[in-house]
Amino acid sequence: MDELRRILEEQSKEMESVIADTEKGGRRKTKGRLRITHNKGTVQYFLRTGPQDRSGKYISKKELNIACEIAQKDYLLKLRHIAERKQEDVSGIYTEKNEHVRSKSEKILADKLNLMHIPYHYEKPLHLHGYGIVHPDFTILNKRTRKEYYWEHLGMMDDASYSEKAVMKIETYEKNSIFPGDSLILTYETSVHPLDSRLIELIIHKYLL
């Protein structure tokens, strides 16, 4: 058991080192994401400024240094997310109620709900027409109004593929008459802007008490 604990601690420290290194490298001046296409055997690069910008601005050959910088930044961000997930898998994340959750931010949310005596279910299955079964991070009941809420924490919004999937999922909620600001609560996070615990309390007071 002592040997297993030592191995896990070493893996956790290794992941912490990777996270620290990628955080430094991921903070580059060029904003946006890279879209790469192939046209008649030629590789073309486009700078996308956000999830809704699906086409992007063409990057000319004279500006290839911009494409290289964005590609490096994207690589470092993905590497960091992988390292964070790996670190969480190694150490394990449990709430005060001894529930196993997927991230530190979900633990913060769960513990805050528990502390404020808000009844919830973690990843309770929900069928959305046109999408299938989803597992909202939290299904919550307002004891005073008896209204049910769904809380989704979108914790990797600086990852292009993740943010696109998040937008599609939110749209599917809306098509099922579950709207943000009504019965759908959304919080966001990036590697640069972590979850704000003060915001959590404001949201709980607004919707759940």
Question: Can you describe this structure?
Answer:
The chain is α+β, with helices and mostly antiparallel strands. It has helices at 2-26, 64-91, 104-115, 160-175, 197-207; strands at residues 33-39, 42-48, 57-59, 120-122, 126-128, 132-134, 138-141, 148-154, 184-188. It has 2 domains: 2-91; 104-207, 3-Layer(aba) Sandwich (Trna Endonuclease, Chain: A, domain 1), CATH 3.40.1350. The strands form 3 sheets. Strands 4-7-8-9 form a 4-stranded mixed sheet, with helices on both faces. A 3-stranded antiparallel sheet has the order 1-2-3, covered by helices on one side. Helix 3 (104-115) crosses helix 5.
List strands and helices in order, with pairings.
Layout: H1 2-26, E1 33-39, E2 42-48, E3 57-59, H2 64-91, H3 104-115, E4 120-122, E5 126-128, E6 132-134, E7 138-141, E8 148-154, H4 160-175, E9 184-188, H5 197-207
Parallel strand pairs: 8-9
Antiparallel strand pairs: 1-2, 2-3, 4-7, 5-6, 7-8
Helix pairs in contact: 1-2, 3-5
Key phrases:
alpha+beta; 3-stranded antiparallel beta sheet; 209 residues; 2 domains; 4-stranded mixed beta sheet; Trna Endonuclease, Chain: A, domain 1
Measured on Cα atoms, how large is the radius of gyration?
A: 20 Å
CATH-level-2 architecture of the largest domain? 3-Layer(aba) Sandwich
Q: Report helical residue fraction.
A: 40-55%
Order of helices and strands: HEEEHHEEEEEHEH
Query: What top-tier CATH class of the largest domain fits best?
Result: Alpha Beta
Mean pLDDT: 82
* Count of alpha and pi helical runs: 5
Number of domains: 2
Q: Major sheet: size, sense and barrel closure?
A: 4 strands, mixed
* Percentage beta strand: 15-25%
Question: Could you say which structural class the secondary elements and strand pairing correspond to?
Answer: alpha+beta
Poorly predicted tracts of residues: none
